[in-house]
Amino acid sequence: MPKKITIKDIAREAGVSIATVSYVVNNRTDMRISEKTRKKVLQIINLLDYTPNQSAQALATSRSRMIALAATPDQSIFKNAELFHFTSLLTSYLQRQGYDLIHLDSSYREKFDRADAIICYDLSTECFLAIGDANFIPLLAFDCIVNDPLFFQINSDYAAIKADADTHFQGEAYTLCLLATPNQERQGLVEELFPDIRYIHTLSDVAQLAPGHSSPQNLLVVEHTLYELLSSHPQLYYKPLLTEAKLEALMHCLEDALSHVPERPHDIVV
Fold first, then answer.
1. Total Cβ atoms within 10 A of residue 207
2. pLDDT at 18
3. Which site from 6, 32, 116, 229 is most exposed, i.e. has the minimal number of CB atoms within 10 Å?
4. Would you say 152 and 120 are in contact if contact means Cβ atoms under 8 Å apart?
5. What are the contacts of 42-45 at 24+ separation with CB within 8 A?
6. What pLDDT, on the 0 to 100 scale, is given for residue 85?
7. SS3 at position 29
8. CA distance readout (Å), 83 to 3, 68, 77, 140
């Protein structure tokens, strides 16, 4: 039988006193508790599925079998195409698992109760945390690094991608062609690993990669949209970020989050 979560467990994980947890779950307005502390306690209550009384019980909702997707459209047609590709794959995968997907408006930062969980795709940390502050249903980061152990995050194993590309090009230099990301943490990680990166924004950027004296000889791409645009390049290596294994990892994290399994590692790379 699983260990019963107690108010002491919540207080320890939140780094607050037992009294503070009690004040939060009982909605005590006569006690001065910061909004930041209140939100952190509520998020940990949701994570650990703590239900001490009717107030906390109300935090749990019945399954709707609906998952919300939060993603921000970009001015780049290529980024929007990649978002559409991801949304199509995710919709098909979730439907096979018995879930429906709803796409939240890009400006939505309010509480959303109609879904079981929210998947945040390629968002800045600031946008991710703003959504987290407004919601206490499970929140998962996909292709965005948030560096907060409270949330599941599923990211690509860029070190493994680099090792595969190094092997493929047999020690020759190559250029990673990439779509820009609003997530500065992910961008920083990639730039630490790959010495030569070219960000693609426009058709002119694509044209400059055509075989010629001034273009890179070897190209690595990881996004489906760039692969479609550059597939005729003679020295192109495609190592996709979006894979079935990565979607399976997302589903495992989603089910663990919905089942309130705190022991599972939250930082997943695939």
1. 9
2. 79
3. 32
4. no
5. 42/136, 43/132, 43/136, 43/150, 44/10, 44/13, 44/14, 44/150, 45/10, 45/136
6. 97
7. coil
8. 41, 14, 10, 17
Residue whose pair of structure tokens reads 């959504």 in the numeric block = 131
Torsion of CA 259, 153, 44, 58, to 10 degrees: -50
Residues 6+ apart with CB under 8 A from 259: 49
pLDDT score, position 242: 96
Closest C-alpha among 54, 42, 50 to residue 14: 42
Q: Cα separations (Å) of 106 from 26, 127, 198?
A: 33, 10, 27
Gap between the Cα atoms of 136 and 113, Å rounded? 9
Mean pLDDT by 10 residues, the chain (270 residues): 75 84 71 81 82 48 82 90 96 93 80 89 93 87 92 96 97 96 97 97 92 82 97 96 96 88 80
Q: Are strands 236-238 and 219-221 parallel, antiparallel or unpaired?
A: parallel
Q: What CA–CA distance (Å, rounded) separates 246 from 224?
A: 15
pLDDT for res 200 = 96
Crossing angle of helices 77-96 and 244-258, in 10° steps, is 60
pLDDT for 220: 98
Backbone angles phi, psi at 142, to 5 degrees: -120, 125
Amino acid 36 reads: K
- The pLDDT value recorded for residue 28 is 63
